[in-house]
Specification:
The chain is an alpha+beta fold and 111 residues long. The chain is built from three helices and six strands. It has one domain (2-107): Dimeric alpha+beta barrel (Alpha-Beta Plaits), CATH 3.30.70.1060.
C-alpha cells in the first residue's frame, strides 16, 4: 500500500535559519531518502518551492498564493510503499526535523 508523507513547516523560520543549518537538514533528507531506497519502500519524493510561488485555481479563477493562509505550509512530500499505516508512521517519525515540522501520513487510494 502506498502512503503520502506531507511535510509541513514554518517557512519564515526556515528562511531565517543559517545557510549551514539549511544545508545540514537537506543532507539529512538525502540520507533519509537513501534509507528509504535501501529498505525498498521509496516511491518518490520532492521538495516544494515557497508557498508564495503557488497559484490556486477555484471555479476557473486563478489567485496567487496557496489555498489557505497558514503559519505552516507544505514544503515537501514523500511517497512510500508500506505494509500498513503503522509501518508508514514509523518512517514518518524518521523524517529529518526542521522548525515547526509536522508530518501528515495519508494512505493513497489504489484505483
Amino acid at each position: 500500500m502506498k502512503f503520502l508523507l506531507l511535510l509541513y513547516g514554518d517557512e519564515a523560520a526556515d528562511a531565517a535559519m543559517p545557510v549551514s543549518e539549511q544545508r545540514r537538514i537537506i543532507g539529512e533528507h538525502e540520507e533519509f531518502t537513501d534509507r528509504l531506497r535501501e529498505d525498498g519502500v521509496y516511491v518518490s519524493g520532492e521538495a516544494l518551492d515557497q508557498s508564495s510561488s503557488a497559484k490556486t485555481l477555484r471555479d476557473d479563477v486563478v489567485t496567487d498564493g496557496p489555498f489557505a493562509e497558514a503559519r505552516e505550509q507544505m514544503g515537501g512530500v514523500y511517497v512510500i510503499s508500506c505494509a500498513d499505516i503503522d509501518q508508514a508512521l514509523a518512517y514518518a517519525k524518521q523524517v529529518p526535523r526542521s522548525p515547526g515540522l509536522a508530518v501528515e501520513v495519508r494512505p493513497l487510494l489504489d484505483f
